[in-house]
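Thread title: Can someone regenerate the structure for this chain?

I was given the following input by a collaborator and told the matching structure tokens would be attached. They weren't. Posting the sequence so someone can regenerate them.
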Amino acid sequence: MTLPASLDEAVAALTAMPAAVPVAGGTDLMASVNSGQLRPAALVGLGRISEIRGWQYQDGNALLGAGLTHARMGRPDFAALIPALAAAARAAGPPQIRNAGTLGGNIVTAAPTGDTLPVLAAMEATLVIAGPGGARRETPVSHLLAGRDMLGAGELIGFVRVPLLHAPQVFFKATGRTGPGRATASVALVLDPARREVRCAVGAIAPMPLRPLEAERWIASLIEWDADRKLAPDACAAFGEYVAAACIPDPAPDGTQAAVPLPPAVLHLRRTVAALARRALGRALS
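Best answer:
Regenerated them for you:
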């Protein structure tokens, strides 16, 4: 294993060994190796790169190192900065996973159940990608997760730029069992009073987080932004149903038969998403 001491050294190592796989916490990599799905020819360890293991303030944003662990993001000082991301990090699994797993790893693996992903989507975060020759480029996290942008040869995610909203933000998830576990559904919701926006992302139910844009615009139009963000009591429930229906729509009839009802398992999932979105909005507004 190669152990570079800087981001540019890591990029150079990956450029020199195109078949090498970068590894930080290794939680997903080792699972793939142990299951026989992956046999890396070489590894480039990122654990010694101190520049990507912290964060800094930059022009109203938090510039988060891709090597930040879930455990570090779950601490109170980070929670004061980006509460929803801290909540997602604390929910990411048992302590051994949170101590090893990293923000960049969560993004690159792009597993549907990645807890940080809906938060980053709702926050409209941007990735700072390091490339050969000291090159840096930026791309919205949603572009990478949707496959509209891919990491090129020798490229690594160095940092994640997250806007500091200084406004309520919430992350909730449902699991199939009590305690830490993989999400069956998750919802991240943030208020942006400066732009008078509500942004919501639903995770775990699709290959990438889903943004119910029409539901966002509808609920934002109902909020009394100049009156302590007041909202009619039944609006939260209606928002939850709107989000769930947008993310898990009814099957479209093909013209030859009536609409087919959702299977019980899918209907249960839609109700779960509705409940999470309703709770998230209610918590943010309170």
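The beta strands are 20-23, 42-45, 55-58, 61-65, 126-130, 136-140, 156-163, 169-175, 183-192, 197-203.
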